[in-house]
Amino acid sequence: MASLALAGMLAGGAVLAYWFSRDDEGPSAVIVDQIGTVAGSEDVVARAGDILELAGYDVEYVTPEEVTVDFYRHLPEKGYDLIVLRTHIASFGTSSEAANNQSFRGVALFTNEPYSTTKYVEHQRDGRLSVAANSVAPSDRFFSLDARFIAREMEGRFDKSLVMMMGCDGLATPVLADAFVRRGAGSVVSWDATVTSSFSDEGMLRLLGYAAGDLDGLRTAVIRTAMEVGPDPMFGATLAMYP
Questions:
Q1: Is residue 137 part of a domain?
Q2: 2-11 mean pLDDT
Q3: What is the mean pLDDT of residues 130-149?
């Protein structure tokens, strides 16, 4: 991981720092850029880092190559106040199941660790890890992890962290978000359906800007962002918050 040293003059404030700071060292944030190899990231990551640094955050950046199973296993122990997951999210189940909000529909976070049938055999057998591929390069397969991994395999606990899952379907069902909350996260923000990466990035940056300057708090920032960016014009995803 690398510390972000970014200089920008984007709008922001100190509310995010106030909301999450619990010690003299100030709040910390991490930007996990799993999709950086397939969706341009330099400008987006720099702008997100600017907003957070102006709000008083110590910001770290996780490169695509560093987004592995082991990284997620130890993520709660890092003590981040704000976690931005710029990642693909795999979904399984049918659209009718999603409409009926059936709890067995699931979503899983991509890693960039290449899939192998001979690695993590026990984890694959009991469902903590599975295989996922994205539509850009479907022949490339990676390990993915769902709520069962968060519940059984992650080490440590989040300390009321805000988790922003900026991939498809993160809140098509509450199962993954609920697993983060049960692991100690304070809130989870994500999209409720498939979303294009450019639209997701726009929503992420607006949300960070509003949450850094909105005295009414995170929920108001989420609602304001959702109203202003609207649904994804291609897939209809809207920004949501759990709980």
A1: no
A2: 34
A3: 87
Sequence-distant (6+) residues with CB within 8 A of 137 are 38
Give the distance, in angstroms, between the CA of residue 121 and the centroid of all CA atoms in the same chain: 26
| Other C-beta atoms lying within 10 Å of the C-beta of residue 5 | 8
Q: What is the CATH number of the domain that holds 77?
A: 3.40.50
User: Locate tokens 């130890």: which residue?
Assistant: 74
- Two structure tokens written together for 220: 């108001």
Q: Are strands 89-92 and 129-133 parallel, antiparallel or unpaired?
A: unpaired
Tokens of 138: 């479907």
On the question of a cis peptide bond just before residue 114, with omega within 30 degrees of 0, the verdict is no
The SS3 assignment for 177 reads: helix
Position 91 confidence tier, pLDDT thresholds 50, 70, 90: confident
Full-model pTM: 0.85
Q: What does R_g of the chain's alpha carbons equal in angstroms? A: 17
